[in-house]
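Tutorial, part two.
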Amino acid sequence: MGKSTQVDQVRDAVTYGALGFGTVAIAAPKVFAGIYGLKGDSQLMTMIRLWGTAVAGIGGISMMVDDEKAQRAIITTALTMNCVNAVAVATSGPETSKRSKLLGVLTSLGFAGAAGYVLSQS
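Running the prediction step on this input gives:
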């Protein structure tokens, strides 16, 4: 990525955000679900943990890679994942509360926007 301090800070925020969100989802899925207004059974908690593992994994890989081309691929993956997540949440059925949809879409688009900014500056 570029040499810009601001771009580096945004990239770091995406990385640490992925680690943080993923870790909370893995370690405390009920807390994660509560933040997003979700109520669910053990199956939902399992799915939240699976999502958390993938997100934390992306963040962890990003921390280990110094190569500019690899960093760009990771950020592109994060951008794509978050765009798909935003669409999936926005189009979820009527059983998903408005709060859950709004927070899910805003979180995903926030991460996608940050990743897009980093890509646009490199």
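The radius of gyration is 15 Å. In part three we will examine how such features are distributed along the chain.
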